[in-house]
Structures are given as structure tokens and as C-alpha cells.
Design brief:
By secondary structure, the protein is an alpha/beta fold. The chain has two domains: 162 residues, Lyase, Ornithine Decarboxylase, Chain A, domain 1; 184 residues, Alanine racemase (TIM Barrel, Alpha-Beta Barrel), CATH 3.20.20. Helices cover 30% and strands 24% of the residues. Strands 4, 14, 15, 16, 17, 18, 19, 20 and 21 form a nine-stranded mixed sheet that branches. An eight-stranded parallel barrel has the order 5-6-7-8-9-11-12-13, surrounded by five helices. A three-stranded antiparallel sheet has the order 1-2-3. Strand 1 and strand 2 form a beta hairpin. Helix 2 runs parallel beside helix 9 and helix 5 packs across helix 6. The longest helix is centred in the middle third of the chain and has 20 residues. Bound molecules: ligand LLP.
Amino acid sequence: MLTDNITRDGNGNLFFANHNVAELAQQYGTPLYLMDEERIRGNCRMYLRAFAECFGTQALPLYASKANSFKQIYRIMKEEGMGVDTVSLGEIHTALEAGFPADRIFYHGDGKTEAEIAAALDRRVGYFIVDNETELRRVDCGARNRGMVQKVLLRVTPGIDPHTYEAVNTGSVDVKFGLPIETGQAMAFYRQALSCPGIEVRGLHCHVGSQVFDEDVFERTIDIMVQFMAQVKRELGHEVKELNLGGGYGVRYLDTDKPIDIPARIRVLSDHLKQRCREEEIALPFFLLEPGRSIVADAGMTVYTVSSVKNIPGYKKYVTVDGGMGDNPRYCLYKSPYTVLHASKKCEGGEQFDLVGRCCESGDIIQPRVCLPGDTCPGDRIAVCTTGAYNYSMASNYNRFGRPPIVMLTPEKSYLAVRRETIEDVCSHDI
Ligand code: LLP
């Protein structure tokens, strides 16, 4: 199986986190997001342990909550001792409502409005990751008006190609995020930040991409960032105290994807950072990463019920389910691969189907060319694996379908963390 939290018994019944998937579908209805709580906690602990081993107390992993944001996940992050990366007041509000400590919230975004900046200052978020000069001025002004000094990291672009798909490449010089080192704009940005009395410049942030598999992306990034840190020290006399390298470790969606040994990668990365800092004669900064996908992706599974099966002889066969691009737009957006499993039968001697959704457009494909048992029929349950990241958080009400609930799975029980959206919910803002 793709991950060790997915198993089958001798009768072909599929289990996720040791729970019978078809029974969960019966109990909670479909479409249904399942989240393996132990796996989320295990992934957090993997980062926390690796950070402690490599950096002692001088590092903190932040969960990038754009990957999946709902109250219970912030409670888990708080219990595990993680920080969180947020990109909107919506995420900040959700975190605070869940009791997540404001001082461990990092606030991202390239388009923060003045009102949002004010609201985040009022909520006392720990750090702003400032994207540009306009934001810098606004944060400075807002902080001074409140008699505060706001901690910030400045977002810069190192000019790295992470070799991932276009929509999630954020390292190149000309991306919309942050300011590039290469053009001198990052240095000017830093200089300006140091002149702001309402700002405490704690350090630098960069993020080069997502679903990254290249071995040396972080090392290449470190080379450029450390060189820039040394330049800041020389030219501005300022020590970069914190370095945040963003998120990005790829996860396996298919059996053929190679696994990444994240603790081993972190060890290599930390050795490299320490060595480069020694060579440039700068102090080792407090170290931050912002993993999103690698914390939650393999903790998720989506379960559907087959609505219809259609055969177009000589062309293809379709399995249509009661969800689709509304709960998982990732194939439509990025051609993302997924592993698809029947919930109660193995696929020996299976046939090829396109697994499609119920939205009113031909592009509503969850996954083309999947292998399912030839006798798959309406009422059967179908599971799509590794849907814990960027599925619920990117879900929409397209065609006015409500979004699915999220059910958490622990060894002892299953429980609802987000209830199903009703048609009344979907209609509730209309006047
Ligand atoms: N930090 C920053 C500044 C980011 O922009 C991102 C992701 C992360 C951290 C987390 O990266 P991760 O560890 O999850 O790779 N919707 C796309 C992914 C967009 C990622 C955007 N930024 C998808 O479904 O693949």
C-alpha cells in the first residue's frame, strides 16, 4: 500500500488508520474527508525531533496551515508544540479561536490590506512575514500607532528553480512573492526596514516551491541566503537572527514516487547551514521551516460513493462519484496524480476507468485512467489517498454543492472535526 496507514483485510475491506473505510462512509455519509490524527502528530514529531537533534532549542517548525486549516488542526499543533504559518485573517482567526498562542503565529501574504494588517496587529500575531515596501510602511505605521514594535521577517527571493510544477514555483527571481536578492531590491528592502521604528527586523524568509523532490534545493538556497546574510552584516551592520526557508518537501501520491527521508534531509541541511555560516563568519541563525503538505497529506483520505458507471464502447469507461473538483480541484489545476482504491474489493484483474465528479463541466476529473474492479457499480465506496493537503483548504461550493465534513481518526475512535455543509449553509449569505 502507498502508506502504512492504509491496509486491507483478507476480505478486501479497506482500512485507514485501522478504521473500516466503508463503515465510516456509512456512518458519516459521503463525500467524506478522513484525517489520521496519529499520522499528523507523528509527522509533527518527526520535524520537532529532527530540529531538536540538529539545532537544540534554536529552531522551530511551523505548520503551513494553508495546507489544511480548521480549528482542530490548530489544537493539535498547539499540543505538539509547533508554530503555525498563516496567510489570511481567516486562518489567524481560526487558530486563535482554537486557542493557538498568538505569539507563535507567523502572518504571510503578498496582498495584505491595510485593514488586515491592523486586525493582525490588534490580535498580536507573533511575526509578520513582510512581502514588500508598501506592507512594511503599513506595518510600521500600524505598530507605532499602537505603541508597539512588531517582529518581522522580510521575504526575499533567492533565484532558485526547485523543479516543480509552475503554479508552486516561488523561488525564481521574477515570482510575485518577496523581493529578489539578485536585483539589489532585497538589500534596499532590508535597509528600509531597519529605519522603521515600529519594526524589529528579526531576519529573512524565503520559500522556493512546493512538492519538491530535488535533493539539494535547500542547500542551494542556503548558499544564497547565507551569502546575503553576510552582505547584510557587512553593509548594514545588522545580524540576521532568524532564517526561515519556507516549506516544500514533496510527498508520495503514487507507489512509484520515491519517499523522502525528511530527518536525513534536515541533518544534511543543518550541517550545510552551520558550515556556510562558519565560512562567512556569521552567527548561526534561529532556524525555521514551514512544512504543510508533508505534515498532513498522507494523513488524509477522501471517500466517495459511486453514483453511476458509464461505458462508451471503444473509448472509455467512467466512474462518477458524489464529489469531484469541488472537494479536490488538484487534478484540474495541476494534473496532480492520486492513488484510487475501491473500499471493499481488491483490484485484481481490474479495468481502467476515469474517476470523475458531479460538477457540470467535462474537466471535473478527479483522476483519469485509474484501475478499479470491473464490476464496480453504483453504491460502491471509492477512496482517494493522500488528500490531507490542499483539498479541504482549496474546496469550493462550485455548482452549490456543500463541502464535505472532516472526520478525525484516532486508535480509539472517530470524531467529527468539521461538519458537513448543508444546502442551507451554502445559501446562508444570500439576501
Ligand atoms: N511557506 C510558504 C511561504 C508557502 O507559500 C507554502 C506553500 C508553504 C510554506 C508550504 O509548502 P508545502 O510544505 O506544503 O509544500 N495548492 C498547491 C500548493 C500551493 C503551495 C503554496 N505555498 C497544491 O495543491 O499543490
